[in-house]
């Protein structure tokens, strides 16, 4: 009855903490209500067919809806994956529903859903690169969606929107960009398949505390003014626009609260960015121009 | 009728991956099993790391209640570092305000966005004739027929009047904005949300200013207005329309709270203790907590230990086991935790502020305090918890002193042990640490949902949510509203519940998938 074009989305939570979903709920403009109900762009509506945290249905009916979308909108739906993919021991560490009387692992869900999708958005550092659960010794064998699909031999366009969690703007604007211009070209993404629009510059380049660094004024204790380098800030090795965009509708951001950046958008998070409160060494600190 | 097995997998509108299985005989639940379906192992990952990293890592157990974990981890580290009594007032107050903001956001999310769709009929918007732009936009959406994510759903038992349906639907949308603002309020002091940044051992990293006090206060004012004039009245309206749910989902009748929000002089706003169904207060002895695993996918030899002595060897496919969640018990008995426990332990202690709120709400509903042990009792307690915390925050924020310190420095000792107890939005949360050679040698978390959604214990006693389900009459087995309303009243958080307690220097066992 309407000329509004529907863009189906399946949002699957695998080994997640739901933090990425909560971050998206925090979007101020557009709001989450705009995403769910309104036309996100004139004439275009994103139809969330499956999202376990918000959907009314449950159990088999919910999974049937997911399957209906997979088959009915084959090649047309966006698959959003939140959380890590636990691959150890045949994927036994995480399951939704049953398959042949046994718990159906995330691995099976993600492989099936990705293969029939238009493209996959890995939201958050877990889905992008493995994230916190892949920290040594990685008990669940967690990997990001990209690595998982590569190992499974599934070739499908993938966009990583990392962050623990990611800023809601990074996710929304990635979706809006697909609706406006189609899937991103290779030059729109960096080496880790992150949109350069959000992950194009170092925290350190745009940090309001940068003048302190240039003058050699460093905070030695929490609460002191100065660059947070001595307190472990990973801003010099972290690509994100947090200092410009700020968080929670501009209310604040990590360094704004006197807390060093922990590099949560980076592929090596958490192991390569830890200890979180120990300063980068000469080896790990890149030359800053 | 007859005998049927109802399996709900996944239970949606909760945090995480939960499966509920209920055996129904002649319309009544005879048996119920609650199964946690995800395992990541955050505590094992912490081993060998810098103790300060515990705050950042454990938050990532859960993106819905990260602040509860950052608070518990920080109290744990304060205790291990020997600075628990040295935190400056600004640090203590900001921690309380950050945690309180998280609870407000969490409770609003739980009532409106996780639970309300079990009680409110969204499709009634199709009959709306009026000028409310929000309702009209939802109506336009519904008329297009692409109703995801609001259908499919259980059909039948929606009892609100048309007017109440529309009003609560409009509040559902308003609540999205209010919970967002609560997280903005949090981030003014906490840096960002989810996964706050500023809470650290010794206090907080944020420096308070008049500007921040004012920004915080005015968001809080708006939230308090919403709590008083929208959230609490909506809980009362649902309670009136579904009053039989004061008699459904009682659970085990034993409640436990660690107490929360440190006040001047080391008191807490909510009291620590236990209570039974007669509201008899009991003193809490932490040594009496033990985790049992007979029905969990872990090696049997590890059962019955205090968290600090715990050892975990996963054993998927173990005969008779059905969950990744362990079964914590207190003094060998089943205990429920959560806002109901938090509020009613303080009630049992005779706390004047809490008693006035509980008795006032119950009298407006013509209900007695016995009714608190129920689905509606949990929702009511959660709303009262929100109000008590929000009102207290309005006092705390004005106690902050700009230009005074919020942090005290510390040294990481070679060896130490610590314990941090706090109330997460959904109940008692405990962290334990052991430090050796300035590194984490053991880290343990026992979280609210491990208590509430636990499987049977070694003696075969079902967990609190399982007990709440057993005996429930199911009106329509194809639309078992009773089951999901009971389960969601506990506000389950499965990512928290299953995080793998680290073995003491032991290797995780190898096993085969059955």
Structure description:
The complex is a heterodimer of chains A (289) and B (514). With 289 residues, chain A is an alpha/beta fold. Chain A has two domains: 5-197, NADH:ubiquinone oxidoreductase-like, 20kDa subunit (Rossmann fold, 3-Layer(aba) Sandwich), CATH 3.40.50.700; 203-273, Cytochrome-c3 Hydrogenase, Chain A, domain 2. Helix content of chain A is 30%, strand content 15%. Chain A has helices at residues 19-25, 32-36, 59-72, 88-91, 106-115, 124-129, 145-152, 168-181, 196-199, 203-206, 210-215, 242-245; strands at residues 5-13, 44-51, 78-82, 85-86, 95-99, 102-105, 119-123, 142-143, 158-161. In chain A, strands 2-1-3-7-9 form a five-stranded parallel sheet, sandwiched between helices. In chain A, strands 4-8 form a two-stranded antiparallel sheet. In chain A, helix 5 (106-115) crosses helix 7. The longest helix of chain A is centred in the first third of the chain and has 14 residues, at 59-72. Chain B has a three-stranded antiparallel sheet. Mean pLDDT of chain B is 93; it is low at 500-514. Chain B is 39% helix and 15% strand. By secondary structure, chain B is α+β, with helices and mostly antiparallel strands. Classes of the chains: A alpha/beta (289), B alpha+beta (514). Chains A and B meet through strand 1, helix 1, helix 2, strand 2 and helix 3 of A and helix 1, helix 2, helix 4, helix 5 and helix 6 of B.
Question: What labels describe this entry?
Answer:
heterodimer; A: alpha/beta; Rossmann fold; five-stranded parallel sheet; two-stranded antiparallel sheet; 9 strands; globular; B: about 525 residues; alpha+beta; Cytochrome-c3 Hydrogenase, chain B; three-stranded antiparallel sheet
């Amino acid at each position: 009855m309407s000329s509004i074009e529907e863009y189906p989305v399946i949002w699957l939570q695998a080994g997640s903490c739901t933090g990425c979903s909560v971050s998206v709920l925090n979007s101020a403009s557009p709001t989450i209500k705009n995403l769910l109900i309104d036309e996100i762009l004139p004439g275009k509506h994103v139809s969330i067919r499956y999202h376990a945290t918000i959907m009314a249905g449950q159990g088999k009916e919910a999974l049937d809806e997911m399957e209906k979308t997979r088959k009915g909108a084959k090649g047309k739906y966006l698959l959003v994956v939140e959380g890590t993919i636990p691959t150890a021991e045949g994927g036994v560490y995480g399951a939704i529903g049953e398959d042949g009387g046994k718990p159906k692992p995330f691995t099976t869900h993600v492989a099936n859903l990705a293969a029939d999708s238009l493209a996959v958005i890995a939201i958050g550092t877990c889905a992008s690169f493995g994230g916190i659960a892949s920290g040594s010794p990685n008990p669940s064998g967690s990997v990001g969606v990209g690595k998982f699909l590569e190992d499974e031999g599934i070739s499908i366009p993938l966009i990583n929107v990392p962050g623990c969690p990611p800023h809601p703007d990074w996710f929304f604007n990635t979706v809006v960009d697909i609706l406006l211009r189609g899937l991103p070209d290779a030059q729109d993404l960096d080496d880790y398949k992150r949109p350069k629009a959000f992950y194009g510059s170092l925290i350190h380049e745009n940090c309001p505390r940068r003048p302190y660094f240039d003058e050699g004024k460093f905070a030695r204790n929490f609460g002191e003014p100065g660059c947070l380098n001595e307190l472990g800030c990973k801003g010099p090795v972290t690509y994100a626009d947090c200092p410009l965009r700020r968080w929670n509708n501009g209310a604040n951001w990590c360094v704004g609260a006197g807390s060093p950046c922990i590099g949560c958008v980076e592929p090596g998070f958490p192991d390569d960015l830890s200890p979180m409160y120990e300063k980068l060494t000469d080896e790990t600190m890149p030359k800053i121009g | 009728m007859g005998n049927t097995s109802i399996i709900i997998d996944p239970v949606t509108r909760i945090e995480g991956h939960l499966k509920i299985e209920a055996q129904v005989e002649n319309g009544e639940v005879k048996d119920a099993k609650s199964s946690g379906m995800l395992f990541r192992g955050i505590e094992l990952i912490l081993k060998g790391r810098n103790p300060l990293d515990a705050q950042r890592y454990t938050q990532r157990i859960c993106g819905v209640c990260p602040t509860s974990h950052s608070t518990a981890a920080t109290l744990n580290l304060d205790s291990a570092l020997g600075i628990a009594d040295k935190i400056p007032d600004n640090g203590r107050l900001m921690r309380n305000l950050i945690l309180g903001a998280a609870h407000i956001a969490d409770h609003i999310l739980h009532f409106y966005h996780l639970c309300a769709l079990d009680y409110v009929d969204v499709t009634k918007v199709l009959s709306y004739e009026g000028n409310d732009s929000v309702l009209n936009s939802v109506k336009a959406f519904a008329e297009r027929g692409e109703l995801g994510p609001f259908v499919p759903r259980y059909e039948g038992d929606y009892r609100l009047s048309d007017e109440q349906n529309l009003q609560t639907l409009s509040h559902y949308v308003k609540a999205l904005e209010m919970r967002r603002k609560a997280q903005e309020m949090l981030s003014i002091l906490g840096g960002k949300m989810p996964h706050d940044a500023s809470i650290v051992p010794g206090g907080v990293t944020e420096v308070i200013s008049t500007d921040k006090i004012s920004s915080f206060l005015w968001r809080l004012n708006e939230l308090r207005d919403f709590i008083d004039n929208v959230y609490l009245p909506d809980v009362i309206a649902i309670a009136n329309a579904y009053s039989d749910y004061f008699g459904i989902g009682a659970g085990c009748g034993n409640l436990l709270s660690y107490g929360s929000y440190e006040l001047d002089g080391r008191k807490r706003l909510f009291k620590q203790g236990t209570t039974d169904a007669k509201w008899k207060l009991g003193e809490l002895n932490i040594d009496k907590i033990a985790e049992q695993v007979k029905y969990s996918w872990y090696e049997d030899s590890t059962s019955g230990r205090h968290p600090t002595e715990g050892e975990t060897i996963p054993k998927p496919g173990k005969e008779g086991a059905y969950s990744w969640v362990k079964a914590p018990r207190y003094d060998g008995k089943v205990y429920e935790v959560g806002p109901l426990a938090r509020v009613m332990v303080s009630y049992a202690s005779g706390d004047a502020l809490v008693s006035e709120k509980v008795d006032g709400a119950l009298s407006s509903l013509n209900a007695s305090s016995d009714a608190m042990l129920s689905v509606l009792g949990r929702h009511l307690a959660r709303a009262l918890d929100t109000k008590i915390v929000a009102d207290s925050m309005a006092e705390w924020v004005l106690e902050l002193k700009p230009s005074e310190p919020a942090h005290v420095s510390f040294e990481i000792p070679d060896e130490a042990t610590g314990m941090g107890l706090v109330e997460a939005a959904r109940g008692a949360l405990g962290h334990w640490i052991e430090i050796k050679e300035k590194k984490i040698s053991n880290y343990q978390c026992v979280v609210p949902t491990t208590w509430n959604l636990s499987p049977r214990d070694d003696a075969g006693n079902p967990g609190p949510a399982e007990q709440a389900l057993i005996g429930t009459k199911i009106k329509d087995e194809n639309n078992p509203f009773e089951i999901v309303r009971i389960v969601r009243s506990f506000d389950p958080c499965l990512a928290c519940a299953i995080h793998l307690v680290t073995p003491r220097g032991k290797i995780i066992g190898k096993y085969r998938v059955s």
